[in-house]
Specification:
By secondary structure, this protein is an alpha/beta fold. It is 28% helix and 27% strand. A hairpin with a 4-residue loop joins strand 26 and strand 27. This is Endoglucanase.
Length: 526
């Protein structure tokens, strides 16, 4: 428990040693010691090195690991340890490349699994106890009849892993070994199944691991899941409570080996609105901390800009780090939309104080004046008409000012003052291979899109909801003034009329009508 607590917080070197076929294949640069030193300097105490071995070992029966690959892994492990980081290594995408065949090919898969772990155990036998082994990443199996049967299959592999490593001697006799639930799921049945493995092994140096990517509709922006709401909050609390009650309360430590939001990716902007994302990150840190869970951020390049060793969004990093020791206040929104023309009125938003107290409001280095510029009543912050008018400036479309609410503790909450005109769209023709709707955003931002047939039924993929998945079905391009409807969307749209409703963050909604005829698409504003 003490060692796992000392690993908080952790960071994943994602899409790197796990990339197929090699370290730079998925777009990340070669790992340097300077980068690992930077991670440590930023407050991270541990690093998870996801490693895929499938393309780096020889044939049966020895499955000899490529010496050059093993040397590279050892080099990064040694650099990390030298930077005073705890290090976790695993078998990563091997889980779905070949380990998943275990139920129907037990002899060969077990031989390969044990051969790899035998070589790793031997290679790292004398390494510091700060090196940790994780048996399998996100275990999954084909050929089983149920999750319960898959739980039993995973039980066999975890037992073999622990016994093999322990028998290899040296520091491996007491090394921390990390065992996942099936799919690294936080469901109670999956945790209960893993607990039986812990009971059978009766080993004091075992750690449980699950992954956490949040309430699915919110994590990918589908079914109207655009906001951090009670569903998202209760999903965090429920999952972390189960982890605490099943394991931590029994003195079995838990590592959330990966966490983030599934669709958060700097290359796909706008899927998850920044303020809503900040609320999620703040809550995950808080709820993990009070339940003594160690978290390891999944970073495949979306958080740390590795070539320049800087955070792509410094504010996200600061809030995540603050959540390890305290709570930060948030608010119902971090955006105040002001019409570009016409009357300006006072604007209010609700503060989520999270145990803090409001202190002051700032615009740059200028402290705004209570009573003149704003008022606070309970948890309601109201900007006066005069303040909104001044902050909106010449009311050019887009962000005209950013103000900062400061509280008794934690990271300040930044609020953008945005001028906009209602977006407009024009008629277009195209095909199902990719249909673009000319859209003048005029300072506004797209939140989500609905698609319905004339009878009111949902059109397109995920036909259980009218709200389609952001990016996979539709994606805005603000520089090109278009919204693309993807081939994946049209692959599940029937011929005939479809009504689209675009929801924008200002609250504006506009409708657009399509007609699909084979591969041809025509569309125009409703």
């Amino acid at each position: 428990m003490q060692m796992v607590a000392a690993m908080q917080p952790g960071w994943n070197l994602g899409n790197t040693l796990d990339a197929i076929p090699d370290e730079t294949a998925w777009g990340n640069p070669l790992t340097t010691r300077e980068m690992l030193r930077h991670i440590r300097s930023q407050g991270y105490k541990s690093i998870r090195l996801p490693i895929t071995w499938s393309n780096h070992h020889g044939p049966a029966p020895d499955y000899t690991i490529d010496p050059a690959w093993l040397d590279r892994v050892r080099e990064i492990v040694d650099w990390s340890l030298a930077e005073d980081l705890y290090v976790m290594i695993n078998l990563h995408h091997d889980s779905w490349q070949w380990i998943n065949a275990y139920p129907t090919d037990r002899t060969n898969v077990m031989a390969r699994y044990q051969a790899l772990w035998s070589q790793l155990a031997d290679t790292f036998r004398s390494h510091s106890s700060k090196l940790v082994f994780e048996s399998i990443n996100e275990p999954q199996f084909t050929g089983t009849s149920s999750d319960a049967e898959s739980d039993q299959v995973l039980h066999e592999l975890n037992l073999a892993f622990v016994r093999l490593v322990r028998q290899s001697g040296g520091n491996n006799a007491t090394r921390l070994l990390v065992l996942p639930t099936l799919h690294t799921s936080g469901e109670q049945a999956r945790m209960d199944a893993l607990l039986t493995t812990f009971d059978e092994l009766d080993d004091p140096n075992l750690v449980a691991t699950i992954h956490f990517y949040g309430w699915w509709p919110f994590s990918v922006n589908i079914a109207g899941g655009t906001r951090y709401d009670s569903n998202v909050e209760q999903d965090i609390i429920g999952t972390f409570d189960r982890a605490y009650n099943t394991f931590v309360s029994r003195d079995i430590p838990v590592i959330i080996g990966e966490w983030a939001l599934l669709s958060y990716d700097y290359t796909r902007p706008g899927i998850i609105q920044r303020g809503e994302l900040l609320k999620f990150f703040e809550a995950v840190g808080h709820h993990a901390r009070i339940r003594k869970l160690t978290t390891m951020l999944w970073d495949a390049g979306s958080f740390l800009h590795r070539p320049e060793l800087r955070w792509r969004d410094q504010g996200i990093y600061e809030l995540m780090m603050a959540s390890l020791t305290t709570r930060s206040a948030t608010a119902s929104t971090d955006q105040i939309y002001v019409p570009r023309t016409g009357d300006i009125t006072s604007r209010s938003l609700t503060l989520n104080l999270n145990g803090t107290s409001f202190q002051s409001l700032w615009h740059g280095s200028t402290r705004l004046t209570s009573g003149t510029d704003y008022s606070v009543s309970g948890s309601t912050l109201t900007l006066t008409r005069a303040a909104v008018t001044r902050l909106a400036g010449n009311r050019a479309t887009g962000v005209n000012a950013t103000i900062e609410a400061r509280f008794s503790q934690g990271v300040p909450w930044r609020i953008s003052i945005i001028s906009y005109d209602p977006p407009t769209q024009t008629a277009a023709t195209g095909t199902t291979s990719g249909f673009t709707i000319p859209t003048q955003f005029r300072g506004d931002q797209l939140a989500t899109m609905e698609a319905e047939y004339a009878d009111g039924n949902a059109a397109g993929p995920a036909n259980w909801t009218t709200y389609k998945e952001f990016w996979s079905s539709f994606r805005p391009d603000y520089s090109a003034n278009t919204i693309l409807l993807t081939p994946e969307f049209f692959a599940e749209v029937n011929d005939g009329a479809v009504t689209l409703t675009f929801h924008f963050w200002s609250g504006t909604q506009i409708t657009y009508r399509l007609t699909k005829s084979g591969n041809s698409i025509t569309g125009s504003p409703a």
